[in-house]
Structure formats: C-alpha cells, structure tokens
Specification:
Length: 70
C-alpha cells in the first residue's frame, strides 16, 4: 500500500515508521546516520526532531528510481 500525502506536514520519526517505511526503528536510525536521508528539522520547544512528509516521499521515490534489478 502506497501512502502519499499531497501536502507537506512535519512528523516525528515514529510516524515515518508507521506511515511511510515498514522497517524497525533501529534500521531507520542506521539509514538516517549513514545515508542521504531527509534532514531533520529542529524547532525550539519540541522534544523531537521533525521530518517533512514531502521530503520523505521524495526520498522514497529516489530509492525506487535507484534500485537495482536483481
């Protein structure tokens, strides 16, 4: 099931796991640290970094375009 939002929204990392990418939090942390993943947005007064849904969607599309046929 593909989940696309047609507007931009700022979400927490746990929402990326629940809505966009079906992997575990540890694996997502590895991807965030090691790859060109969406850069987090830090806002004063928020305990957690936030991520742009449009940027997450673009990252997913980039992964689809870059995949190697096996």
């Amino acid at each position: 099931e593909e989940f696309m939002l047609n507007y931009d929204k700022l979400i927490q990392k746990k929402e990326i796991l629940n809505l966009f990418i079906g992997i575990g939090e540890t694996k997502l942390d590895e991807i965030i640290k090691s790859e060109d993943f969406v850069k987090p947005i830090f806002i004063n007064g928020f305990a957690y970094p936030l991520y742009s849904t449009s940027e997450v969607n673009k990252w997913i599309e980039d992964q689809k375009q870059n995949r190697v046929n096996k």
